[in-house]
Amino acid sequence: MxxxxxxxxxxxxxxxxxxxxxxTKRREAAKAAIKSVGGKLESFYFAFGGTDAFVVxxxxxxxxAAAASAAINASGSVQVRTVVxxxxxxx
Length: 91
Prior knowledge:
- The protein is α+β, with helices and mostly antiparallel strands and 91 residues long.
- The chain is built from three helices and four strands; from the N terminus they run E-H-H-E-E-H-E.
- It has helices at 12-21, 23-35, 62-74, and strands at 3-10, 40-46, 53-58, 78-85.
- It has a four-stranded antiparallel sheet with strand order 2-3-1-4.
- Strand 2 (40-46) and strand 3 (53-58) form a beta hairpin.
- Helix 2 (23-35) crosses helix 3.
- The longest helix is centred in the N-terminal third of the chain and has 13 residues, at 23-35.
- It is globular.
């Protein structure tokens, strides 16, 4: 399955939710959104700097990854940017 990177930046609402519910709830919400389009969460990391979280996922295709991205964005808690990842062999 193709791999994708989601770069997430939390809104003020998202930061408040993160502080109240903890990080595992955010990971589980991302996992559910990804699973709903036939994908699989590979990794989820919080980070310092301009991007609050980096998520790597497997998805059946670009449309599925876009649907997962839209579902995550629709929460209003986060703004995401999705990047298609390619292996060296796929370049």
